[in-house]
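On clarity, I found the account of how folds are encoded harder to follow than it need be. Since the whole study asks how a given chain folds, the encoding of that fold should be made plain. For illustration, here is how one protein appears when written out as sequence plus structure tokens:

:::
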Amino acid sequence: MVAAGLPARRNSREVSVIDYALGVGVNLTPEYYGQIAIDRSVPYDFLEIDPHDFNLTEPVRRTFSEIARRYPVVLHSTTLSLCGDAPLDAGQLGVVGEFARLVGSQVYSDHLCFTRAGNLNLDLYMTPAFTDEMLHWVRARVETVIAATGVPFVLENVGMIVGQPGSGYTETEFLRQVAATSGAGLQLNLDSVAVSAAAVGRSPLDYLQQFPLDLVETVAVVPKASMNPALRAEYGQDIDKSVLEMFDAVMAGSPVERVMVQRRPGDSSAGFDGFYLAVRDIYDKHRG
């Protein structure tokens, strides 16, 4: 699973479950976890998992109890539909809280978007209109999430496919308002910055400078191979180069110390390991 050329983890000792996840971690899907549970050479600083990928059977509990003894674990989901109009799924949030207690997670994140319209599940994360009404709606929903899970909540930006007519804020102004007033942190997804930049006719690096980098708690770095297929087909040309350039700028211009690299089924080990090494090199250049 891990190429021989990858460096050792920054913190190679067995970690306490109360340690905070810092450094360069990886978001993995279920097929990778059996190996991580038994392989002590995996170099990632922390792991990010979607609790809804798993049923909390006794074997799963044992696997993640073992993993959590050696790696900080943070939680991330994709289907909360925070900006949607349907009630938040209490059962879904209960699973997050239970998983957080199992692995000692200190972070839970999802997207600043809606993923459902009525009874229709969408294939893309959709940005809302950036209005005062939506800001109040998000604040209330964030309070619900934190109360239901007992875990600090972090919101991840998603790419605007088109501009948002009728908005009272730009995307970046809205993100700053959310972070300043809702109690949620920010997770900056860099390929989403590239998508939004295209929607407003700006270069990714130029558009990035408008984001509230001082408030970012986590950076999500997604290689081309892990992008949504539709977005990859439309925006994927040179996306890895663009994402790494933006990541270098973020590390130079913000205090963030937690970085997550996404890996998805089908990503070749060699291709992913090369991208992960490039991210680690940039991280270490700025953080030492």
